[in-house]
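User: You have something folded?
Assistant:
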Amino acid sequence: MLLTPWPVMVRQLHIVILALVLCVAPGWWSGVAAAADPGFARFLAELWPQAREAGISRATFDAVTVGLEPDYKLPDLILPGRPKTGAPAQAEFVQVPADYLKEASIARLAAAGQKLFQQYQPTLRGIEQRFGVPATVVLAIWGRETDYGRYRLPYDAVRVMATQAYVGRRKDQYRTEFIMAMKIIDEGAVTRQGMRSSWAGATGLTQFLPSEYYKHGVDFDGDGKVDIWNSVPDALASAAQQLVNKGWKPSVRWAYEVRAPGNADCTRGVPELSQPIGQWLREGFTLARNDKLSASELAEPASLLQPEGIYGPAFLTTKNYFVIKEYNFSDLYVLFVGHLADRMTNPQPFATPWAATKQLRTADVEAMQRGLTRLGLYNDKIDGKAGMMTRSALGAYQKSARLKLDCWPSEAVLRSIEAAR
């Protein structure tokens, strides 16, 4: 009896197993083969010269890109044969203030912030002395961005930035962010696995893009590297440095809650209209808390903010309000951070409650913005966000159409704008 050599038997066995697999699951092999994206692989390979020029080692480049695949489920992509997707509807742009600025959330974060203030007191005092930014403000940013580090960012930052650089709406921006992300990893500030992010690539305890990391990052704990992922001193000092670099004024509050007089014109609530706080008070605005302001405070320029039009609280916002807004371009975000910072030293909520207003859908706000643009009343972005410029333009339309002046987008006003010629 002739015996088949052992190596031949093994090869034959492998062939039989593969045949069985293909018979049982004929789509399996094609799915594996289709998993690789040749275009994406070429895109990554073409990045090497730029990465090398940025000082990234070949070993790091290969380690980061090997096996990397795009995430086509991300928002804000332009994919052939598919409808263009936009950024997801962020809560700060689609929720009414009462929903975004929930008292329970602010109270919880303020209590946690007070404990962290005690825990990191030497660090926070050092940040205040060096940067002139209140400790409560940087704590509030940390709390808003990642719940003081308790929130685990859901995305692989490298994959996010590579995908956005490949098929995103802002390819050039994210190409740079992707290169800088690899540079951060190459320098050893964070591991490849440790770089988690939001869907847009913001990473770390206080949510920086890689370019912001290099512009504003601070090694505050003195260990020789800027670590915004694991070092609380570095993350908070970097947030303070970013505010300073964007124009933070020391010893100036972010805003003052006020009560508007009955004859107040809500169309004046735009950043360009700024006058001394004392002038606003002479015009009938009153401080909600009856605070006594110093001469320098009364002379400080401020703009009117009425987030719900004539409904809900009103604020006189200083330059520092708009500096925080550079961190996240949303009035509700700044109100959350500013009020949370205040609540760490003062337990009082907003003096005027938020009204139970209804927010229009993003598509409806975009339609309103297009209509106001057509009528020559609005010349800002068509972005579906009812910010200061949109509310002011809406108020101007209400004046011209002799409608109730409230500077708040509603379905009735939208229908009126669409019918106007």
In short: The two ends are 98 Å apart (CA to CA). The first strand starts at residue 155 and ends at 156. The chain has a mean pLDDT of 90. The beta strands are 155-156, 196-197, 255-259, 275-276, 286-287, 301-305, 307-310, 314-317.
